[in-house]
Amino acid sequence: MDITLRTPLSFSEIGKKENQEDRLYPSSGASPSTRTFILCDGMGGHARGEVAAEVVSATLGSSLDGDSSPEVSASGFEAALSGCYKALDEKLPGDDNRRPGTTLTCLRIGSNGVLAAHIGDSRIYQVRPGAGIMFRTEDHSLVNELVRAGQITEAEARVHPRRNVITRAMMPGASNPPKADVAILTDVRAGDFFFICCDGVLEKLQEDRLIKILSNSATNDSAKLSAIKAICDTGTRDNYTAWLIPVADVTGNDTPEGRPVITLSNVAPARPNSPAAKAAPAKNAGKRGIVLGIFILCIIVAALIIMLRGSKDESPAADAPKIENKKPVEEQEPAATSKPQDDTERQRDAVRKTRDTRPAAPKPETSAPERNNAPKEDVPATPDARQGAAANAAAAAASNRRKTETTPAPATEEPEKKTEPAKTEPKPDSDPEPISE
């Protein structure tokens, strides 16, 4: 595998600290032919942390560059690291109560891949533009142990009051010197970036922002590093130092391309036992409660709509009497057929009323003559008088018969009335008109 680099770039700033304890190798800058890149973050303040960083970076860099083997290996690195511990013991006595120390990050380009080794909380990233972070070292720090144990999240680790406490560092006089975590990366592609930085850079720079900056194809390498530095310039308290190592080309690499461990869409969830994870169920419960409330509200609204539609559909039933009134119309048809009977009764009543109001037919004129001409007891009737009276009675009867036959019957009378003799109901004789004597 042949890895070709573009020109590596770096920056190193003091920040808000009183002195600069960070050290880079090579300290005078790098070129595309450079194969070893080291960053050490000294610790101990006035206890000469910058000296420890200088000793380790210079000693390890010289040892690795002096190795004639083109390949990289974990055993070769560990041998070079042992020489660093010896140099620390020689340069910095270990009997001081405030011994200096340093973190270590080292990147070595070989023919079989890229060696990445670290001790402490400085980091190494491999970023593939458009994909994400392909590799990232794990901090040897108290807060990272808490993150791995699920006690806090990575976001909480960045602001934790004990975030500067590291669990592994290179110090002089160590009876059991800590080892480095070593990885040999073979999934290296043209366009990849290796980014090495101390914890001062990570104080302001978040990983999603790093991916976006390095994935921006509209900017060159110098502009990318300047954008990262500008973020750190906004108020980083610690020293901030970084290497940006761009890969120009890779040949002879038959390693399958892997998947990124961190992408813009791959947000690491809170660990199970972290405060954020404990708060998550409450947040999720709140969201579920809101969704459930909306769902119940929708059900209620739907029920109301159904009820309203049902009431509209049932409105004909509310008007059932109207329908029932329409039904009996057919049932009332027989009543309509009985209408003639009612009319008949009304006609009969009218006839009766007419008959009652109609002036009584004149009594035969013979009745009066009969009475008037009736012989008084004290006047005897003569034969001529009796013959004249009989003639007059016959003439009166004939006249009365003609009047009766010529009197028209009411127009409304129907044949049924013929069965009721109209003249069978004469005025009662009990109330005869008085006859004057």
Number of strands: 12
Computed over alpha carbons, the radius of gyration is: 64 Å
The number of distinct helices, counting runs of at least 4 residues, comes to 14
Strand content: 15-25%
| Helical/strand content category | alpha+beta
The succession of helices and strands, N to C, reads EEEEHHEEEEEHHEEHHHEHHHHHHH
The biggest beta sheet is recorded as: 6 strands, antiparallel
Low-confidence stretches: 267-277, 316-338, 364-383, 409-437
Overall average residue pLDDT: 78
Measure the end-to-end span: 168 Å
Approximately how much helix is present in the residues? 40-55%
Shape: elongated
Structure commentary:
It is a single chain. The protein has 437 residues and is α+β, with helices and mostly antiparallel strands. Helix 1 (49-65) packs antiparallel against helix 2 (74-91). The protein is built from 14 helices and 12 strands. The chain is 41% helix and 16% strand. Mean pLDDT is 78; it is low at 267-277, 316-338, 364-383 and 409-437.
Features:
12 strands, 16% strand, six-stranded antiparallel beta sheet, elongated, 437 residues
Short description:
This protein is an alpha+beta fold. It is 41% helix and 16% strand. Strands 1, 2, 8, 9, 11 and 12 form a 6-stranded antiparallel sheet that branches.
Write the layout of secondary structure elements.
Elements: E1 2-5, E2 9-13, E3 22-25, E4 36-43, H1 49-65, H2 74-91, E5 101-102, E6 104-110, E7 113-119, E8 123-128, E9 132-136, H3 142-148, H4 154-158, E10 181-185, E11 193-197, H5 199-202, H6 207-214, H7 221-232, E12 240-251, H8 275-313, H9 315-318, H10 320-331, H11 333-337, H12 339-357, H13 367-372, H14 383-406
Antiparallel strand pairs: 1-12, 2-12, 3-4, 4-5, 4-6, 6-7, 7-10, 8-9, 8-11, 11-12
